[in-house]
Each structure stands twice: as C-alpha cells, then as structure tokens.
Design goal:
- The complex is a heterodimer of chains A (362) and B (192).
- By secondary structure, chain A is of the alpha/beta class.
- Chain A has two domains: 185 residues, 3-Layer(aba) Sandwich (Rossmann fold), CATH 3.40.50.970; 112 residues, Rossmann fold, CATH 3.40.50.920.
- Chain A contains 13 helices and 14 strands.
- Chain A has a seven-stranded mixed sheet, sandwiched between helices. A five-stranded mixed sheet of chain A has the order 9-11-10-13-14, with helices on both faces.
- Chain A starts with 8 loop residues before the first strand and ends with a helix.
- Chain B has one domain: 3-Layer(aba) Sandwich (Pyruvate-ferredoxin Oxidoreductase, domain 3), CATH 3.40.920.10.
- Chain B is built from six helices and six strands, in the order E-H-E-E-E-H-E-E-H-H-H-H.
- The chains are: A alpha/beta (362), B alpha/beta (192).
- At the A-B interface, helix 8, strand 8, helix 10 and helix 13 of A face helix 1 and strand 2 of B.
C-alpha cells in the first residue's frame, strides 16, 4: 500500500483533519457523504486529499443515500466510509441496519452533536444509544469511543481493519469537541509501525461456480421464512460473541485501592483522569474505568475491576442524560456496587464537575 | 509552566478565531501542550464568537473550561457573553472605548481596560486591532515567547508580507504595542 504519510510526523490539527488523514492511511478508496456539522471538515479534508492520492468522493443527495452507497461500494470490494452526526446519524440507521443484515464492512465516523433533533451543532455524548443499538432488528456492530486526536487517528485505522476482518459495520464515535479542536498528535504510516492493513475483497461477482468450486455468497437483508431469519440472527450472535475477547477494549486506572470508581467514555475520560489525580492529591482514593469499545462492551473486564476493587461506589459521568448509564447497568446486572450519576446532557464535563460530585457522595 | 486558560471573544469578522489559532500554533511550535477550540455555534448568523485556548507543559484534560485565567472581550456584546467565564482568579480585559456600566463588568481578580481600538485606529491601522489583542494576550500570560508569536504570524501571513513588506512591519508593531499595553495595564489595573 502506498505510504501517504511519509515519515512519522507530529501534527497540530483538528480531529476532523486527523480522521481524513487516517482514512487515507488506512487505504480507504472512497467516501460517500452529506454535509452536517460538526463532521463537515472530514469531507472537506478528504475532498482535498483524495484526488491527489487517486481516491474517490461522492456527495449524495442525503444521508440515507450516503449510507447505502457505502453498502454498495464495500460489496464491490472497495474500502468505503462515511461520516455524519446528529439527525444525519438517525437517517443513516437504515443503511447501517442493512450493513448489519448483510455483514458489510462499512465504516462510519460519528461526531456527536446535541439533541434531540437539530439540538446544537456543538457537542454531546447523546448519540451513544443510537450508534450502538440504532438498527431495527438485532444486528451487530463495533463501536470505538475515542478521547484524543491520537485515538481518532489510531482507531479510524483500526476501524477499517476490524470491519474487513470480522465483517461487522464499525463506528468511530467522536464528538464535536474532538472534531473541531486542535491538539497535537503523531501521524504515521500504519505498516511502518508493524500494523497489518487488512485488504478489502469483493463480495459479489466472484470467480468460479457455486456448488462446483465455491460456496454461495449469502448477501441478504430479507427472508421469506421466519425460521430462516431466526437461524441467521443466531449465527450472527454466535460469530459476534466469538470475537468479543479480541475486540473489546478498555482502560482502568488505580481501581484496586479506590474507594470510588469513576466510569466515563470518550472525551469525558480526560476530565476523569485529571479528577483522579487531583482527588488522590487531596487524600481521596479514586480510580477510573473507561470502555473504549461501547459495543462490544468490555463486560467481563468491568466485572473483574469491580471484584478486585475496594470501591463501594461507582460514579457514571456523561455528557448525556443516562445513555452510558443504561448501557453499563444492563451489562453488569447483578453487581452490588452502588451507582451514582453525573448527567450533563450536551455540555462539556471538566475535572471540577467530577470532583465536586465525588465529594458530595462519599 | 502550569496550565493557562484563555477565553477570547468578539464579533464575527474581528479575527478572534485567527488570533487564537496563531497563539495555539506558536505554543505548539514551542513544544508546549495546547488545545484550541472554537465556539462554533451559529455566530456566522450574528452571535458572539468565542475561542477557548489552553496551554500547559503537561497533558491537558477537558477541551473546555468553566473559568478562565484571562478573558478578553473585544466588543460590548462580548462582555455580556463572557462574564460567566470570569471569577475571583481571572484577569478580565476589555476595550476602554466600550460604553458599559461598571455593574456590567464581571467578578474578577483584576479588570483591565485597554485602549486597543483607539491606538489601532490612530497610530496603526484598524485592520491590526486583532494583532494588538494577540500581543496583549502574550503580555498578560507569557504563554508563548514574543519571538514564537512573530514566527507564527510569519507562517500565517507570510504570503501577504511577501507582497507588501510594510504589512510585516505593521503587524510586528501591533504585536509589540499590544504586549506593552497589557504590561502597563497590569501595573495600573485595579482590583474590582
């Protein structure tokens, strides 16, 4: 694969620009998109970069079409992706559902904005439920929640690998802050770091004869018999459960001796890290847990962390009104650790907010 | 250097975001940790534009903050909009020419009125008002060296300076004027 980055280099850019470079480095062939803030610059940078590197771009008539064109391109064996936010994420759930049904290696970057509806163009963590479980029926997907520009770059590359390796639609869940702010990161050519880039392959128009020298491809999103669908869905469940140990990721810090565990995801985990440092300097033993994959959720890891921790309380903090909280509670059903909440829908959370909350509950 | 948090606010077109970007770029070039985030609401449709900058030697946490170390309001409306970012530890800076009542000014460690608009109009050029403000930020915070600021200006506006070398001189003068203005007002500023 061509090295589009050159020598590993430091850069001081926006998250959207980091995503555009990462998709290029991951070998994406084409982006299909429709403008919406705060992801617009993913498109803008991609349209600037793509022609120089022989890659493609198509602006479709809306988000539904952008999602479906990605579904089409990946079947032709092209690494295709899209990026969206807010109401655009709602519209794309139909094509995302098709990708779940047909096991298409679709990649989508979601930069969360405030809601409901058009809400704000700025920031939130209110698209967790939609991005993890937004499809109808019970499809499967992989969702990475990033916290820094470095992670936006790293996990965008990883998203293409996961999508093409496991054939589940894969999402990078960022937010408006990460999209628009500038901070330093290191950009690299993945292969120089020893990262293998999974090669795309066509799903249709294959050589050979079915039953003769190859198996048939089942690319189907509708079945005439309920028993057929039942089998397919159960097969998906089996495939997905088998990859969870490989795919699920998390970070835990200083939970063993902690009296309280602060659980956050994405950009809010930066505030949680600072809060842990400050609280410990004041004699309050805090620890932090952060799921990096919101789906599959690192359930066993969190259960283990709770079991090996002295903490009697867990604080779940999010820039939403309980979406992460619901996700966590269903995953760790049966645990007796007390759960407290800091819900700040659509606004940023800083270390001070978490520290004040911790002090009010312990 | 410990963490410095700066909020810069003005009208669309005053160059708030450009100045913030140049300062952040200069800090990055000096190998500091820095985050710059624009308030990218609907200011293109007539709101106040705010830039949030953080500079530190250590990794920076959350991209936004509740209270700033330095707030600079570049318009009368920006004063109203930025009072929430000021508290007893904040240096609050506004332009002396604003027609505002004492009560409109927020709680602050020090409130500084600087004559940036007048000086830009009378001694330099209205266009470099934002560069005077950039100089003032540096004079107040020392987040970047004067040399790094000049270099970042050169990177950003070099192509314009090539066409008209007088512009380079004008911008450097504005930068220095802002810095001196800020340092003097720090000496004279009164606690509110």
């Amino acid at each position: 694969m061509p090295n589009v980055i050159g020598e590993t280099k430091k850069a001081f850019i926006t998250g959207n620009e980091a995503v555009a470079w990462a998709t290029l480095a991951a070998g994406a062939d084409i982006m299909f998109g429709y403008p919406i803030t705060p992801q617009n610059e993913v498109m803008h940078y991609w349209t600037r970069l793509a022609p120089k590197h022989g890659r493609g771009f198509l602006q479709t008539e809306d988000e539904i079409s952008a999602g479906f064109t990605v579904c089409g391109a990946v079947q032709a064996g092209k690494k295709a992706f899209t990026a969206t936010a807010g109401p655009g994420n709602v519209l794309m759930q139909e094509p995302f559902g098709m990708a779940e049904a047909m096991r298409l290696p679709l990649v989508a970057i979601i930069q969360q904005r405030g809601g409901p509806s058009s809400g704000t163009v700025i920031y939130s963590q209110q698209e967790v439920t939609l991005t993890t479980f937004g499809g109808n029926g019970e499809g499967h997907r992989i969702v990475y929640s990033t916290a820094t520009h470095q992670e936006m770059y790293d996990y965008t590359i990883k998203a293409f690998n996961s999508a093409w390796k496991y054939r589940f639609p894969t999402f990078v869940l960022g937010d408006g802050y990460q999209a628009k702010m500038r901070e330093p990161l290191e950009m690299y050519n993945p292969e120089e770091k020893g990262l293998e880039i999974v090669k795309p392959f066509p799903l249709v128009g294959l050589d050979g004869h079915i039953g003769d020298n190859r198996e048939p491809q089942h690319l189907c999103n509708i079945y005439s018999m309920e028993e057929e669908l039942y089998e397919v869905v159960l097969d998906f469940v089996k495939d997905y459960n088998a990859i969870i140990p490989e795919v699920a990721e998390y970070q835990a810090q200083q939970c063993e001796d902690a009296e309280i565990i602060i659980l956050t995801h994405g950009v809010v985990s930066r505030a949680a890290d600072d809060a842990v440092k400050i609280l410990r300097s004041q004699g309050i033993k805090a620890g932090s847990f952060r799921p990096i994959t919101l789906r599959p959720f690192p359930t066993n890891d969190l259960r283990n962390v709770i079991a090996n921790s002295k903490a009697k309380t867990m604080l779940i903090a999010e820039s939403a009104y309980g979406q992460l909280d619901r996700l966590v509670k269903q995953e760790i059903y049966g645990e007796t650790i007390k759960i407290e909440n800091l819900f700040m829908p659509g606004v940023g959370i800083i270390d001070y907010d978490i520290i004040s909350k911790v002090k009010s509950i312990i | 250097m410990s963490l410095v948090k700066i909020a810069l606010a003005g009208e669309g077109g005053q160059g708030v975001q450009s100045v913030a970007e140049i300062i952040a770029e200069a800090a990055y070039n000096e190998k500091k940790q820095t985050i710059y985030i624009p308030n990218f609401g609907l200011e293109q449709r007539g709101g106040v534009s705010i830039a949030f900058i953080q500079v530190s030697d250590e990794r920076i946490g959350a991209p936004k903050f509740n209270k700033a170390d330095v707030v600079i309001a570049l318009s009368e409306r920006a004063v109203d909009r930025t009072t929430i970012y000021s508290d007893a530890n904040t240096l609050y800076v506004y332009d002396q020419s604003f027609k505002i009542d004492e009560e409109q000014l927020p709680e602050a460690k020090k409130v500084l009125g600087i004559p940036a608009i007048d000086k830009a109009n009378q001694e330099l050029h209205p266009r470099v008002f934002n560069i005077i403000i950039m100089g003032a930020v540096i004079g107040l915070t020392n987040v970047v060296s004067f040399e790094a600021a000049k270099e970042a200006l050169e990177n950003r506006l070099g192509y314009k300076f090539e066409k008209n070398p007088n512009l380079r001189e004008l911008n450097y003068k504005a930068l220095e004027m802002g810095k001196i203005m800020a340092e003097e007002s720090l000496k004279e500023g009164v606690a509110k």
